[in-house]
Amino acid sequence: MIITETSLGDLAATGPDARGVLLRHQLDFCCGGGQSLADACKAGDLDLQQVVTDLEAAATRGSESVDWRERPVEDLVNHILERFHRPLPEHVNSVVAAAEKVERVHAAKASCPHGLAAHLRAIRDDLTSHLAKEEQVLFPALLGGQRGGMLNGPVTVMMREHDDHGENLKHTRSLTKDFVPPEEACATWRALYEELTRLEADLMEHIHLENHVLFPRALKKV
Questions:
Q1: Burial of residue 86, with CB atoms counted within 10 A of its CB: 0-12 exposed, 13-18 middle, 19 or more buried
Q2: Do the beta carbons of residue 28 and residue 166 sit within 8 Å?
Q3: Would you tell me which of 4, 134, 145, 185 could form a disulfide with 189, CB atoms 3.0–4.6 Å apart?
Q4: What is the pLDDT of residues 53-99, one digit of tens each?
Q5: 144-202 pLDDT, tens per residue?
Q6: Rounded-to-integer distance, Cα 17 and Cα 60, Å
């Protein structure tokens, strides 16, 4: 049974099927993960009962997943590195290249996502810097067994940058009309929007795992 006062972050932690439902309804479970399901649906003018029904259906599917709240912090750090950090640069480079091509070829069309390539290049720069900070400072500390207040500074910086990433994702949706290509879109244009949808999902899951699972555990002296 879904309790509507449960936070989006806690719902997302139950597994990939729940995260899929939240993504489909554009409910921000990463930077906005502290918000209750009821409040988020109200703010987004969504049908709360429909979202609850979808979440309950997802729960019955019971896809096998790892509950990272129960696994060692070191395992979670290594999972984040392999699942998100390693493939991210190549993925972002590919969408930047595709956006540059679409804008170059279709610049004369009113439906062209003007400014998207520059926006994605800025995202790439921000992500490159962010990943480096985690890999050079925070993650080595966690893998070395450090916990508690000494990590408050690095965690605070990472969470602030996560908020910036969340705003960037919203602007990407604005530039692409929620990743819906126009009728005249070519194959590259359509593929670009599909990849941006996948990138958004990956970044949201990535940020969610850090904000709502890894960082709270990092700040505990356990």
A1: exposed
A2: yes
A3: 185
A4: 999 888 776 555 678 888 999 999 999 999 999 999 999 999 999 99
A5: 999 998 999 999 999 999 999 999 999 999 999 999 999 999 999 999 999 999 999 99
A6: 10
What are the structural domain ranges in the chain?
8-61, 73-218
